[in-house]
Amino acid sequence: SSAKSAEQMLEELGKRGNKLAIKALEERQENRRCLKRKVDDGYTGPSATSSKNTLFRESPSERHKSNQDDPDAKTCHAEDSVEYWNDQRAKLGLKPLKEKK
């Protein structure tokens, strides 16, 4: 499947030290953990989340911080372009990176 090959490719890039690949892999693992946590907790919908709201309150801002461009990652490779990563992240079911205007 395309998601599998995209993930394998991310792992390859991550091994070579590509910061965007590592970030995407970490987000993907975090997404999996969140899904698993909901299942493990016997997630039943809004009533279950109301008590847990404090757990997730920081996550949007934390995620926003992690999406900030790393100045060290600025090179001219295609695999460092925002378009390229939005495409790869879409294959993995991740939100697109914010493009800096």
TrEMBL record:
Amino acid composition bias (Basic and acidic residues), ranges on this chain: 59-81
Region described as Disordered: 36-81
Residue ranges with Polar residues bias: 46-56
Superkingdom of origin: Eukaryota
UniProt name for this protein: Uncharacterized protein
Organism encoding this protein: Leptocylindrus danicus
